[in-house]
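Deliverable D4.2, example record:
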Amino acid sequence: LIHWTLDKQLIGSMATKKADTAQQSRCENAVSHLSKKGITFLALDFDQTVIDIHTGGRFNGPISELASHVRPVFFHLIHAAHDAGMKIAIVTFSPQVD
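Output generated by the structure prediction step:
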């Protein structure tokens, strides 16, 4: 992730809010299964998937506000994939072609 290292501390501070050990375990198991299948790259849609709002490619609020919109399952999935050494891309639809 772009700025993952810098923002991991901020996003990590959400851990208590997003704490759900069962969901965390399911995400770790899913990543383990993907790794066993030889999958090393995870691409995730951003707006209305990783986060629960649509930014339209722009967000003017503070990063802490945007981080509060990360869906718990993706919070755990991204952490598990990162910890497993997977490459992660956050993708989005855009009319921009260049």
